[in-house]
Amino acid sequence: MTDAVVTPATEALDALAIPYTVVQTAIAQSADESAALQGIPVASLLRSILVRRATDDFFFVLVPGGRRFNWPRLRQLLGTNRLTLPTEEEARTETGYVRGAITPFGARRSWPVIADASIEGLEVVAIGGGARGVNVHLSPADLIRATNAQVVDITVPEPRSTDAPSTDPPPVAEA
Asked: Which pick of 102, 127, 137, 173 has the fewest CB atoms within 10 Å?
């Protein structure tokens, strides 16, 4: 824990007595750059993506770097035919965070969290710390416990540039 950076996310982690480390970096332009700046593998870098199931019904999906969530699997898991992404303004209203700093920790409302099962085998994960360029590093077990995350295999590797185009909606920008 640190005294250097205080955000709603770090305050929430402190209130839960979850051990973490704050890592501040320049604002990265890609997941690869962010992982390099933080000194972690890209697979340890988690994007927090807010997804809308219905009016006033959202949830977070935690997606490791180099992967994207599988829309059909996610719809099947949630028993719905339709999921949408909120606008940047809607995401800010629901979470209190700007895009690039969204995290389930300290969000204005406590939405359910779905984490990809691939994080369970990692030593550490990095997730947004509530401000651009601020990340918190913690164990996957602590992240899952703190967010009461449902851990499910819901991602697929990002397509390489030589792969055939996907029929799913375009990849989601980092949240």
From this structure: 173
Burial class (CB in 10 A: 0-12, 13-18, 19+), 104: buried
**Residue written as token pair 């019904």:** 57
How many other C-beta atoms are found inside a 10 Å radius of the C-beta of residue 122? 17
On whether the CB atoms of residues 106 and 96 are closer than 8 A, the answer is yes
Cα-based distances in Å from 45 to 82, 120, 167: 27, 13, 25
pLDDT digits (tens, 9 = 90+) for 39-55: 999 999 999 999 999 98
